[in-house]
Specification:
Blueprint: E1 5-8, E2 17-23, H1 27-35, E3 46-51, E4 57-66, E5 77-83, H2 86-98, E6 102-103, H3 108-115, H4 121-132, H5 136-146, H6 149-173, H7 181-202, H8 207-213, E7 215-221, H9 227-235, E8 253-259, E9 262-268, H10 278-293, E10 296-302, H11 311-316, E11 321-326, E12 338-339, E13 342-346, H12 355-370, H13 381-395, H14 403-421, H15 427-435
Helix pairs in contact: 4-5, 6-7, 6-14, 7-13, 13-14
This protein binds ligand FFO, guanosine-5'-triphosphate and magnesium ion.
Ligand FFO binds near residues 66, 71, 72 and 118.
Length: about 450
């Protein structure tokens, strides 16, 4: 950490303004060298002409000086707000490298902020999630986590563990015959209550993780039902090939959508049928595999064929399926509003009829299932794995058998929870978390 690092914090490419960030002990000297003037007052933007070692001007920009520890990383930080563009970037990069600074690794600023106790791991993850957020719901979830909601919950669980452990240690200090039985009972009650709280959080249907990654919605149906036409309508562009020929789509086609703030990954699939030949069979296999991983399925039927409903499509209908009766412009018979116990909506991908209703309906379904409640959610598999490990350790807590072993299970549970916030750290976890960051973050 002795190195002083620098990076372009704003995105690369042509832009009006580019924000550069320097962090480490050499930041102040670098600013002095670039401007040839005394340091500006802390945390105030000042106008500055930056020149390289040969006195060649690099840019006329703004500079800010954040002395440690009151900075994002907790180290001395300098920000330079320059004009965007490759030549300025090249000139500054060369000047900074000449002054002994080195380009930052992805996530290195945040990693230093973590190392200096400015942020915990859930905060660091939330920064990465916020930068990656594509919809309002993802942004809200990231901001909540950045605000410390998840960290506070984990710390509260840890605090309860430590307090049970303290009681248990008091009990260990008593001679066996003097041990007040109520002390042991109390630890048992408290451990059971904590285990129940952990279990309740683990039974959240992975909604935090699903929201972070995007909800998988899959279109399924017979060949020619109009799945690809629906995908194109919902995407607002011709993402998939549509044709009157049955068997047009053979592979899975994905589009990313923002449905009322919910991030969705909508997948079009090959028509379900008795496949003739290897390619068709593989297409159907992929469609069914996709159905298996979907958070929500849209079973698409040809409304012109009602009351006959394709059998293979009926078979995929379950509790997480919405039925779509497409081609309602061609329907002769009256259309049902439920199929196989699930609600059915009539649409026409051709005219656009009923599509607003379909979208409203998907949004309602998503809202119901994935709405962020009052409790902070686990947003990554890593949080879930650690909370599960804590739950398992806590489930093994039995002070009536052996006090020493019981204390050990409490410590194991606390260690598992400590990994979530980074109180207990392993290089492997840190490496994995910060590697997914952008450079400059
Ligand atoms: N120009 C610029 N914009 C930015 C950032 C930045 O570093 N620079 N941020 C970077 O992510 C975000 C804002 N977050 C920040 C978080 C902490 C500190 C900071 O200096 N913290 C000090 C001082 C706190 C105070 O006095 O308010 C500290 O925590 O000690 C700065 C920005 C988004 N926008
Ligand atoms: N009249 C009418 N025709 C439609 C409608 N939706 C799709 N079609 C037509 O139905 C045919 C098949 O549409 P696709 O979207 O390719 O159907 P698909 O379900 O993706 O078919 P496969 O990829 O072969 O499984 C095309 O000729 C479309 O123009 C609709 O709502 N009304
Ligand atoms: Mg298709």
């Amino acid at each position: 950490m002795a190195d002083t690092i620098y990076a372009l914090a704003s995105g690369t490419g042509r832009a009006g303004i580019a924000v550069w960030r320097l962090s480490g002990q050499g930041s102040a000297d670098a600013l002095l060298a670039l401007t040839g003037r005394p340091l500006p007052p802390p945390r105030r933007a000042v106008r500055a002409v930056l020149t390289d070692r040969d006195g060649e001007p690099i840019d006329d920009g703004l500079a800010l000086w954040f002395p440690a520890p009151a900075s994002f990383t907790g180290e001395d930080v300098v920000e330079l707000h320059l004009h965007g563009g490759r030549a300025v970037a090249q000139g500054l990069g060369r000047a900074l490298s000449g002054l002994g600074l080195r380009p930052a690794e992805p996530g290195e600023f945040s990693r230093r902020a973590f190392a200096n106790g400015k942020i915990d791991l859930t905060h660091a993850e939330a920064i990465a999630d916020l930068v990656a957020a594509e919809t309002a719901a993802q942004r809200r979830q990231a901001l909540r986590q950045m605000d410390g909601a998840l960290a506070a919950l984990i710390e509260e669980w840890r605090r309860r563990l430590v307090s049970i452990l303290a009681r248990l240690e008091a009990a260990i200090d008593f001679a066996e015959e003097d041990l007040p039985p109520s002390l042991i009972t109390l630890t048992q009650t408290e451990a059971a209550a904590l285990a129940a709280d952990l279990a309740a959080h683990l039974a959240d249907d992975r909604r935090g993780e699903i929201l972070r990654d995007g909800l998988h919605i899959t279109l399924l149906g017979a060949p020619n039902a109009g799945k690809s036409s629906l995908l194109n309508r919902l995407a607002g562009r011709e993402a998939a090939i549509v044709s009157a020929e049955a068997g047009t789509t053979r592979d899975v086609i994905e589009v990313h959508l923002d449905l009322g703030g919910w991030p969705a990954i909508l997948a079009d699939t090959a028509g379900l049928r008795e496949a003739e030949g290897q390619i068709e069979a593989e297409g159907v296999r992929r469609a069914l595999a996709r159905a298996g991983m979907a958070d929500l399925k849209l079973a698409v039927f040809d409304a012109a064929l009602v009351p006959v409903l394709d059998e293979a499509t009926r078979e995929v209908i379950d509790d997480s399926t919405l039925v779509v009766l497409n081609k309602r412009d061609l329907a002769a018979a009256p259309l049902p509003d439920r199929v196989a116990g699930r609600p059915a909506v009539a649409v026409s991908a051709k005219t656009g009829d009923g599509l607003d209703q379909l979208v409203g309906w998907i949004e309602g379904e998503l809202q119901q299932r994935f709405a962020v409640g009052s409790a902070p959610v686990l947003t990554r598999a890593r949080h879930r794995a650690a909370a599960e490990a804590a739950f398992v350790a806590l489930s093994g807590f039995d002070p009536s058998v052996d006090l020493g072993l019981a204390a050990e299970s409490l410590r194991a549970a606390a260690t598992a929870l400590g990994r979530i916030t980074g109180r207990v750290e392993t290089d492997e976890v840190l490496g994995a978390i910060f590697a997914e960051f952008c450079i400059g973050k």
